[in-house]
Amino acid sequence: MHYSFIINSTAGNNRSQKKWEELKHYLDSHNIDYHDVFTRYSGHATELARDIANTSTDNEEVIVAVGGDGTIDEVVNGVMSIDHHNAKTNSTPIAVIPTGLTNGFAVAYGIRKNPIQAFQQIESANKTTMISVGQYHESIKDESGFFVNSLGIGFDAALISKRNSKKRSSSKMGLLTFLISAGGVLYNQQPFSLMLQEKHHHQLFPNTYIATCLNHHVRGNKQAMHDNLFSSNIQLLVVEHHNWLITLWTLWLLATGRIAKSRWANYYEADKFQYTTTSLEFVQKDGIELGNRFVDVSISSAQCQIWQNSSFNHPKCQFKLEKC
What we know:
Rossmann fold; eleven-stranded antiparallel β-sheet
């Protein structure tokens, strides 16, 4: 097996480089067949993954994303954006060495935080595992793509936009700076109108504060998060603005993974959603800022190949779980 590592050395507040050096020492000392390439700008991992998948000549290639959720997102989009008329479409599996701050996908799939242990989960795999990822098409800009965690409109996307602007102006964003920014976004974020279509059902939410499609839902239970990755359904969470006390309480439930149980949250699960906004709103996917735009988006799921054992013993996993 040959491994192509795509490394975002700036992930995890620049701690990714140290983790990669630790893993590289392991790879070299164990004579692992690999090559490595570093990303240089936003979207570069997508280009690199697409090139590797297109030029791979055998079935012994694995593309390994070394970074956070944004890096994984870009690698998945690079592999899965290959022309569907190409016989090699999505034939190259991916794997993950999580080096970000939150690593939502790695937690859901069951990937170790330690880079060497995460690679041992890759090395011990003997076949691919098929999981579901989110797939979207935005009609206004005629834009298509994939996401591994979430695609969000509203507060979470505005907060990511604010965070990114702070990062561009300073080398590191501390907790206090983040909380101040979050408070500013919370105060300034205005409710917006969202029209949802799910099958033949239409519903208008006139005071939407958050609208997030989820590939795996945080239910305060890691096993449940993992199970969602093997479902063809997508989850949609819509939170409307009420008074400030209710809004703050709802955001706290969202942050602690208990939002689906809240009476103030609208939670849906289906194989396809379509929704539109009538105003310019911030949009994000997997923590990647997509800008301020009108939205008319259709969301479903697609199959993605993973070459990596999981720490969960899921009955639908297509491999025999081995200890790492």
